[in-house]
């Protein structure tokens, strides 16, 4: 019997974890390397997390790849827009799965572990020798570690190191255009929204009460400030999204409380004080990145780009995680299509080349679509490319 092909997955985020599971389920020996510790060891979820809303496409990919139970995931039914002067709009929404990003990654990682994936946390990719198919990782206080692969999956996010190494390699044709969103975000955890929204709610529907599975939004157009409150188990995960520098600027001002009281006029004073306290304790993270690579896979080198590394998108339209999960489904379908060549020299090359055919055009079209999302094109910073 021939030995199992070795897939090295760089990145233990959502797309890395799901790729690892899909490949392990299809006969690969999978070694996953993630630079941070396992998400279950992180003390405060707001240090690393934000809310993800998964639409039917992302949910479908998870289901088809055998991931069913998502920790603290809630299916949302309504969106409530809180507008000043107490006019509120409650709209029926499609049943998206609302989940904190670290809980989604945690749930998929657990499935990958069950599928037999070898997990290596706190390992950072440093270099790749594409000719000899060797990836080099470093671990704090340890010698660096060289790992041979048959397939390298770069799921290391929109600022992918693997992608950068591909660009730098003169024997590989890859150009990448990157645009950063000049938005930032910061999250706080609050009691359930039923306990923090105080005024009589005047929703423009005939419903007598607001269902628990509701996402609430507050927006201030003048400062481009959006506040999203999503169900988070029996609590609320509130995400503030605004142009870079806004939050730190506001936090320094004495009238930050006043700003919050105008924006969140129907939120209790106690909850607003808690929001200020949590915001002051943490720091905002910068938003997301649009990535347009000239290719998402390199058959001869047996390397492919996955998720945000392949097609980073602005987070405002809530599409990139859905697209990332769909890309993993394409990888699984490409692997299934090559079943007859398992064990032959062409097996991995064929998988990469079918993956590119199945995915490239749709993924890049989705990046184009999100480019004009929340914040407007005036808030974009071109990093490189033209
Ligand atoms: C505020 C915000 C809200 C969002 N909301 C939505 C939403 O509602 N719906 C939606 O579809 N999408 C949303 N997204 C986007 C979604 O989070 C991403 O598309 C998704 O996380 C991409 O997953 P990924 O695994 O490809 O990349 P990532 O989640 O970035 O994971 C990459 C992983 O690689 C690791 N890594 C990086 N470099 C190295 C290295 N050198 N060595 C080893 N490991 C490395 C990182 O630590 C990380 O764990 C949102 C994003 C943000 C920022």
From TrEMBL:
Cofactors that this protein relies on: FAD
One Pfam short name: FAD_binding_3
GO MF annotations in UniProt: FAD binding; kynurenine 3-monooxygenase activity
Keyword line: FAD, Flavoprotein, Monooxygenase, NADP, Oxidoreductase
FAD-binding domain mapped to chain residues: 8-167
Superkingdom of origin organism: Eukaryota
Biological process per Gene Ontology, one example term: kynurenine metabolic process
SUPFAM superfamilies hit by this protein: FAD/NAD(P)-binding domain
Name of the protein this chain belongs to: FAD-binding domain-containing protein
Organism: Corethron hystrix
């Amino acid at each position: 019997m021939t030995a199992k092909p070795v897939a090295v997955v760089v990145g233990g985020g959502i797309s890395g974890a799901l790729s690892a599971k899909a490949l392990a389920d299809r006969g690969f020996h999978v070694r996953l390397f993630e630079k941070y510790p396992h998400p279950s060891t992180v003390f405060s979820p707001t240090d690393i997390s934000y809310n993800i809303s998964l639409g039917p496409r992302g949910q479908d990919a998870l289901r088809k790849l055998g991931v069913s139970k998502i920790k603290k995931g809630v299916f949302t039914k309504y969106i409530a827009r809180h507008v000043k002067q107490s006019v509120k709009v409650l709209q029926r929404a499609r049943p998206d799965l609302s989940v904190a990003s670290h809980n989604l990654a945690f749930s998929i990682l657990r499935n990958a572990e069950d599928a037999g994936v070898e997990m290596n946390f706190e390992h950072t990719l440093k270099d790749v020798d594409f000719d000899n198919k060797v990836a080099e990782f470093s671990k704090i206080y340890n010698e660096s570690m060289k790992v041979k692969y048959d397939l390298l999956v770069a799921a290391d996010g929109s600022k992918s190191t693997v992608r950068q190494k591909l660009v730098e390699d003169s024997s590989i044709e890859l150009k990448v255009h990157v645009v950063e969103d000049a938005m930032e975000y910061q999250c706080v955890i609050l009691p359930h929204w039923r306990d923090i929204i105080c005024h009589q709610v005047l929703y423009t529907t005939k419903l007598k009460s607001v269902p628990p599975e509701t996402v609430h939004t507050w927006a201030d157009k003048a400062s481009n400030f959006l506040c999203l409150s999503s169900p988070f188990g029996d609590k609320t995960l509130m995400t503030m999204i605004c142009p870079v520098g806004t939050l730190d600027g506001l936090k320094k001002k004495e009238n930050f409380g006043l700003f919050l009281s105008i924006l969140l006029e129907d939120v209790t004073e106690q909850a607003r004080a808690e929001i200020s306290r949590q915001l002051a304790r943490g720091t905002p993270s910068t938003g997301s990145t649009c990535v347009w690579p000239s290719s998402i896979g390199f058959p001869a080198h047996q390397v492919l780009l996955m998720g945000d590394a392949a097609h980073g998108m602005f987070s405002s339209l809530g599409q990139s995680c859905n697209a990332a999960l769909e890309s993993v489904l394409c990888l699984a379908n490409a692997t299934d299509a090559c079943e007859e060549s398992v064990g032959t020299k062409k097996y991995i090359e064929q998988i990469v080349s079918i993956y590119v055919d199945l995915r490239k055009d749709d993924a890049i079209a989705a990046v184009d679509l999100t480019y004009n999302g929340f914040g407007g094109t005036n808030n974009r910073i071109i990093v490189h490319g033209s």
